[in-house]
Design the sequence.
């Protein structure tokens, strides 16, 4: 059942120290490291899990290697987010554009298909925002993190907060 008590002690010790190291490194790296996910953040999170699993279950991976791996991922994520704030090219490589799924009470089915979103998901987003009729919504946007933004009123003139939304008509 157990290979050796040494393996259990190793898993307990390394797991505890790795957990403390992750908390410390994430705290030092700032809020952006734990912000809502995009595809880049998802990859980094999976990599964190893989490193932690290797640390916990493999006696061939040292604690120092694991902490270096965590630190490297956080450093790379910091560099990418720093660059993406300063460069539109990097930002376009790392983050998808938000997409308009409903506009002026009409569901944009061609965009739903492109984004692989079911009409029921748009309806659920409307309901969760207290909207019971599609016609009462001015816009539903699929955000870069996969969440939905529901806008009841666009107001007068150009809606500048929607300028980066794919499918929003530009004035």
Sequence:
């Amino acid at each position: 059942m157990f290979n050796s008590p040494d393996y259990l002690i190793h898993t307990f010790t390394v797991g505890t120290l790795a957990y403390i190291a992750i908390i410390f490194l994430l705290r030092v790296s700032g809020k952006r490291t734990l912000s809502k996910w995009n595809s880049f953040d998802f990859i980094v999170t999976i990599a964190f899990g893989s490193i932690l699993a290797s640390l916990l279950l493999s006696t061939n991976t040292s604690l120092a290697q694991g902490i270096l791996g965590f630190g490297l991922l956080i450093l790379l994520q910091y560099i990418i987010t720093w660059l993406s704030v300063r460069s539109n090219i990097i930002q376009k490589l790392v983050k998808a554009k938000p997409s308009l799924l409903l506009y002026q009470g009409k569901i944009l089915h061609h965009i739903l298909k492109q984004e692989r979103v079911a009409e029921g998901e748009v309806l659920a987003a409307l309901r969760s925002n207290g909207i019971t009729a599609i016609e009462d919504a001015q816009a539903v946007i699929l955000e870069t993190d996969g969440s939905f933004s529901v806008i009841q009123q666009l107001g007068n003139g150009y809606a500048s907060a929607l300028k980066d939304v794919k499918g929003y008509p530009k004035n």
Observations:
- Residues 5-29 form the longest helix (25 residues).
- The chain is about 55% helix and 10% strand.
- Helices lie at 5-29, 39-57, 63-86, 88-94, 109-115, 119-128.
